[in-house]
Specification:
The chain has 505 residues and is an alpha+beta fold. Among the domains are: 144 residues, no CATH class; 140 residues, Lipocalin, CATH 2.40.128. It contains 4 helices and 16 strands. The strands form 3 sheets. Strands 3-2-1-7-4-5-6 form a 7-stranded antiparallel sheet, with no helix packed on it. A hairpin with an 8-residue loop joins strand 9 and strand 10. The longest helix has 21 residues. The protein is elongated, with a radius of gyration of 42 Å.
């Protein structure tokens, strides 16, 4: 992921650590590593893990909120909802930037703008931005070969030029000669335009600019002299010397212009974007906010179309690591999925009991033996509601780890929920590492496990599984580490109340 500069979690941590007195910091067990200018390895190792929840289209949510989960301080995982709260937690400090990930791949950025409380829990509001694509390397420009800078690059017509020497006399004006004419070639006749003489100068390109010498009597009103001087361009700007007699008129005209400009300045006010003073007030058109904080669209409650994604803020730039598992044979994935689905049906009591075989019918010896009775085909497997099956490779070279969550889709207390974490054993069978089964009537005792995604919480190139533990009135977030054939919970946030969205009138 890219380097998070001034908006990173570390920058906010250093600013808060300097502003908070020492006794107030004693309530947090986290530690900030000291940084030195000699080595980049001594920089603080803070890493924030959060969950972005939104409704609507990915990248353009209708409403969103960022829920802090944990902060890794280099040694332990701390609760991100209370870590260095002054007053908001460090993970939700202003201008902290998070990278949104799905299966370890960046899908966007989220900038914290402001924070708020939802039933006593801190959440952050901000804006979703597109992920920054790496800049392509600029292609080297081909060298341009230019033999003579006076040539016109747009003209392909060859032009012959005479080499000029320092002792050559200047060409007099009005002789009909140009710099490209041969020496001694002059126009015949008396120099008058009516003499009918022809010049020996070659025909020049009409689109090529030509330099002309200004005649000495250009300022006079007389029309006598040679007619070979070029006609001045009426649209070409010229500089004129100010006449002494024009002082009074100029002063009068300047006073009128100043008066008009002053009146124009009094009719409107423009903003000054180039003013360096940040505290200088600026007047702009439009309706004023009156000092009210511009709160971005917030998300309240648990809508049915709620989407979740992992958000990570880190000062360092680790190599992108995707957690998807590559199957050597795609048929193995279908086999493992079918096995886990059957385990889920059995746990949710969706598998019908086996149908007893029909009793054999006794026949008399004189009657011919009837054909064997064909048993009816088994019923199709019961569907699983909201089934979510994912396969991860949680470390380099590690095997596959399966996660399946589903429920029965019943109404009220009849709805049951199941979650499985499993791995294949040496014989290709499914080995269950963690199994959770609950129903809607006991969610406060055994919450429902909903997988968010895999995330590297401790920046050690090993991912943990992030689950949401949702009860009837409270919920938590928990990290599970799968290692050596076991799935162990290594961290869980404090319980937060589930907000009920207000009903529309």
């Amino acid at each position: 992921m890219h380097y998070l500069r001034a908006g990173s979690i570390v920058a906010a941590a250093i600013a808060l650590a300097l502003a908070v007195p020492t006794p107030a910091c004693a309530q947090y067990p986290g530690q900030l590593a000291k940084s030195t200018a000699n080595s980049a390895k001594d920089t603080p190792t803070l890493r924030a893990i959060s969950v972005l929840e939104w409704t609507g289209e990915e990248g353009h949510p209708k409403a969103s909120r960022l829920v802090p989960v944990a902060i890794f301080d280099g040694q332990e995982l701390q609760d991100g909802s209370i870590y260095l709260s002054q007053p908001e937690p460090l993970s939700l400090a202003g201008e902290v930037e998070y990278e949104l990930q799905r299966n370890g791949k960046p899908i966007g950025l989220f900038d914290i703008r402001n924070t708020g409380h939802e039933q006593g829990s801190w959440v952050g509001y901000g804006s979703w931005k597109a992920a920054v694509a790496p800049k392509p390397k600029p292609k080297p420009k081909a060298p341009v070969l230019s033999l003579n800078p006076s040539w016109d690059d747009q003209d392909d017509r060859p032009v012959l030029h005479r080499k000029h020497h320092a002792d050559d006399p200047p060409t007099p004006a009005g002789t009909g000669q140009t710099g490209d004419s041969k020496p001694g070639a002059a126009a015949s006749g008396s120099g008058s335009s009516s003499s009918g003489s022809t010049s020996t100068a070659p025909t020049s390109d009409p689109d090529r600019p030509t330099l002309h010498r200004k005649p000495a009597d250009a300022d006079s009103d007389s029309t006598s002299g040679s007619s070979s001087s070029p006609t001045p361009d009426p649209d070409r700007p010229t500089l004129h010397k100010k006449a002494p007699s024009d002082d009074s008129a100029s002063n009068t005209s300047t006073g009128k212009q100043k008066k008009k400009k002053k009146n124009a300045d009094e009719s409107y006010v423009d903003s000054l974007p180039d003013v360096a003073d940040p505290d200088r007030p600026r007047l702009k058109r439009g309706q004023g906010t009156g000092g009210v904080l511009n709160v971005l669209p917030s998300l309240i409650g648990m809508p049915p179309d709620l989407n979740q994604a992992v958000a990570v803020s880190d000062a360092r730039t680790p190599v992108e690591h995707q957690w998807s598992f590559a199957w050597a044979d795609p048929a193995d994935q279908d086999k493992m999925k079918a096995t886990l689905e059957q385990m889920a049906r059995d746990a949710l009591s969706l598998t019908p009991p086996p149908t007893p075989a029909p009793a054999p019918v006794k026949h008399s010896a004189s009657r011919k033996q009837s054909k064997a009775v064909v048993p009816p085909p088994p019923p199709p497997p019961a569907p699983l509601a909201d089934e979510d099956f994912r396969v991860y490779e949680l470390a380099y070279g590690a095997g596959a780890t399966f996660v399946l969550t589903a429920h029965t889709g019943g109404q009220g207390a009849a709805d049951k929920y199941a979650a499985f974490i499993a791995q294949p054993d040496l014989y290709g069978n499914v080995l269950v590492l963690l199994k959770s089964v609950t129903d809607a009537a006991h969610l406060d005792d055994t919450p429902r496990m909903r997988l968010v995604d895999a995330v590297d919480a401790e920046a050690d190139n090993r991912a943990e599984l992030l689950f949401e533990l949702r009860g009837q009135t409270e919920r938590q977030f928990a990290l599970y580490r799968v290692l050596r054939g076991q799935a162990e919970r290594i961290f869980a946030t404090g319980p937060a109340d589930i907000v009920v969205a207000p009903r529309a009138n």
